[in-house]
From TrEMBL:
Protein's recorded name: FBX21 protein
Domain Hemimethylated DNA-binding: 121-222
Keywords annotated in UniProt: Signal
GO molecular function, one term: DNA binding
Stored NCBIfam families: yccV
InterPro entries: Clp_protease_adapter_ClpF, Hemimethylated_DNA-bd_dom, Hemimethylated_DNA-bd_sf
Top-rank lineage group of the source organism: Eukaryota
Signal peptide positions on this chain: 1-18
Amino acid sequence: MPHISAAAALQICVLLSAFPAQYFISQWYGTDSAQRIQITERLIIASWSSFTKSYLSPDAWADRLKLWLSKTRTYLNVGLLILHFRSWYYGEKKTKIGDNEAETHSYFAESSDVRSPKPEYIHFSVGQVIVHKRFGYSGVIVGWDIKAKAPEEWLRHKYPPAKQDLKDTPHYRILINKVNGFGKSTAYIPEEEITVIMGLEVHHPDIKAYFSGYDGSRYVMQPWLKKFYPHD
């Protein structure tokens, strides 16, 4: 027999006590002893019949079990829907973040694509020291793209309609010489704005990450960087 919970037992007590009490109040007075006994017997039989039908009947418990299973399936279905949604949402979010990171690292000459063969119109090489023609700061080339690769918003800000043609020209990533006090540590600029200079060393906190040394005319690339620019 299934276990009766405390709540169910309390309900049984209420049913067995409250209903007879109400009935006695309305029926007990004004009757003789024989009638009282008959009324009491009927109440006891009715209460016991109600109790057995509700808590001792296999059919009643089967109905309760069906109702419980139905609610459980509903909760499980809702839970599964929530889990599927969370999995889809966070998986989609993670994918988008991953895509954004991949796009970010493909901008500003930071792509891991091997630049081979090197086009003839790429006039400068990684490791060469340059000077900016307009702003005067010096720096060293650490990467290049055959044309500008940057977010559209950056390109619109950098190149107004009058300078749109510059987007399709070679662009170079520069570590800016700290001694210039320029305020920026890197730059991404078109080829026409720079010129090569020799005999000038560049001071930058990341210089050793890209180069193993300076030979007097240019910086020598680290092996990992040489793999991306084998012809420079």
